[in-house]
Amino acid sequence: MATARNVAATPVTIVIFGGSGDLAHRKLVPALFELHREGYLAAGSAVVGFSRSVASDEAWRLAMKSAVEEFGRCKPSQNTGLWDEFASRLFIHRGDVAAPKSFTELGERMREIETQRGLPGNRLYYLAIPPSSIEPVIRNMGETALVAPSESSVWSRVIVEKPFGHDLGSARSLNELLSSVFRERQIFRIDHYLGKETTQNILVFRLGNGLFEPLWNRRYIDHVQITVAEAIGVEGRGKFFEETGILRDIVQNHALQLLCLVAMEPPVAFEPNAVRDEKVKVLRSIRPQTTEEILRDTVRGQYGPGAVGGVAVPGYRQEPNVDEASLRDTYAAWKLQIENWRWAGVPFYIRAGKRLPKRVTEIAITFKTPPIAFFRKFGVMRQEPNSLILRIQPDEGIALRFGAKQPGAAMKFDPVKMDFRYSEYFGAHAPDAYERLLLDAINGDSTLFMRRDEIEVAWEHVTAVLDTWRENPPLDMPNYEAGTWGPEAAVALMARDGRNWRRP
Ligand SMILES: NC(=O)c1ccc[n+]([C@@H]2O[C@H](COP(=O)([O-])OP(=O)(O)OC[C@H]3O[C@@H](n4cnc5c(N)ncnc54)[C@H](OP(=O)(O)O)[C@@H]3O)[C@@H](O)[C@H]2O)c1
């Protein structure tokens, strides 16, 4: 989107708070190794992990080597020279986020590394730590002068992971805390969905082609469905999920971000604030719902025991660290109306769930049917609507469904499909979203990161639903079997409007 991948990054010291954690292992260090391999990390650039438990640089390098071997695209065992070069960029700093002394020492360690490696002092701080650790980290960074003032000749930036708060109030407090130490242009709130090639392609598809944008409005589009389905359950993260639920974990960020990209107006320029201005307008145009409307237009679900891919799986309440009477949502469906000139009267249906039959994220745009039944005399009273499917993951691509005549004397129609698959056309495996997002943050391009107002408006809508749900506890949970497409009530939500969920 904004930054080309061939832009060379500026020299930087990257600090990963949470250097020993899962995110650093599975995503961050593999992505940085990939950037190193492709020549995107400037000479001298260093990566400093921060954690309590890692004893030495050597221990961290070994742990990261195994992590990249397991999760990276390029394996250290097959590229030993390259790995050794990269490993020499890695350092660990042992410290506790609650201890100011750890930050003074971190500052000293960074200055040492920067002097040795000829680095100018640009710093990118990545908060890969539990939400409860964010407050002490920001406070201590501010108090120990680890953040360069925004007018200084070197820069400091911070990347903040999800969850960004757990409701509107906590998201606002977190924004206040961040802005007590950083300026907005130094804050990079990450939603890794925005770094996915297919997500970026939504705008390329809409704005880089002449064919579809003229149709992209209420005159031609009947409705839009956004699906974020997972086949997995809570994967040992029962405690986290009990506090979170699918609405917070997926809908508040990923699904609403996809909605913004589908529904936004063309920005005046391809630059961070122009793009984000348009996204936030979409969020502001979502019609606020009353309690009755929320109860009517949302569905919450929780999976019971069942089978996924032929394998028996337990229900949510049987997962470790889950209350046996839990009312937590593992499925959510939501009908939204965007009240602006482009979209008035076109419903957007979002659904997200765990333990659904397959992992798939897609946006399905259903067009209106022709105004007359032209082939009535041949018995074709209604034609299937055309639909355009933007597949975000896993089988990335775009499909267009339309009606075609069956060969033969009779006038019979069949829905057929034109299908574009990224993997078939472009071959090479797409870069991981974290590679793109880390490079953009190093280069100071925040187009693919969320601005403060975006986060807060999204939370306003989601908090209204959460409050209504809390005040009106569900009586029917668990209400869908693992391995099915969700509760009956979600089917009814669509059926009421004369529509169906797609079966991806
Ligand atoms: N994992 C993912 O795929 C993923 C995806 C999206 C977002 N996130 C978010 O990213 C954040 C980190 O997730 P994670 O899965 O990597 O968590 P994790 O595996 O539990 O790792 C937590 C990290 O924080 C460090 N830490 C915790 N308390 C500390 C303290 N008092 N002082 C210093 N370091 C401390 C831990 O290091 P020590 O124990 O060694 O001190 C560890 O490195 C969370 O906010 C999560 O929601 C994660």
Characterize the structure shown.
The structure is a single chain. The chain is α/β, with parallel strands linked by helices and 504 residues long. It has 2 domains: 13-161, NAD(P)-binding Rossmann-like Domain (Rossmann fold); 194-369 and 451-495, 2-Layer Sandwich (Dihydrodipicolinate Reductase, domain 2). 36% of the residues lie in helices and 20% in strands. It has helices at residues 22-37, 57-71, 80-87, 100-117, 131-143, 168-179, 197-207, 238-244, 246-263, 272-285, 291-297, 422-426, 433-442, 452-471, 488-495; strands at residues 13-17, 46-51, 90-94, 123-127, 156-160, 187-189, 221-229, 298-301, 303-304, 306-308, 311-313, 331-337, 347-353, 360-367, 387-393, 397-405, 413-421, 480-481. The protein has an 8-stranded mixed β-sheet, sandwiched between helices. Helix 9 packs across helix 10 and helix 9 (246-263) crosses helix 14. The two termini are 27 Å apart. The model is unreliable at 1-6 (pLDDT under 50).
Topology:
Layout: E1 13-17, H1 22-37, E2 46-51, H2 57-71, H3 80-87, E3 90-94, H4 100-117, E4 123-127, H5 131-143, E5 156-160, H6 168-179, E6 187-189, H7 197-207, E7 221-229, H8 238-244, H9 246-263, H10 272-285, H11 291-297, E8 298-301, E9 303-304, E10 306-308, E11 311-313, E12 331-337, E13 347-353, E14 360-367, E15 387-393, E16 397-405, E17 413-421, H12 422-426, H13 433-442, H14 452-471, E18 480-481, H15 488-495
Helix pairs in contact: 1-2, 1-13, 6-14, 9-10, 9-14, 10-14
The structure holds NADP nicotinamide-adenine-dinucleotide phosphate (NAP).
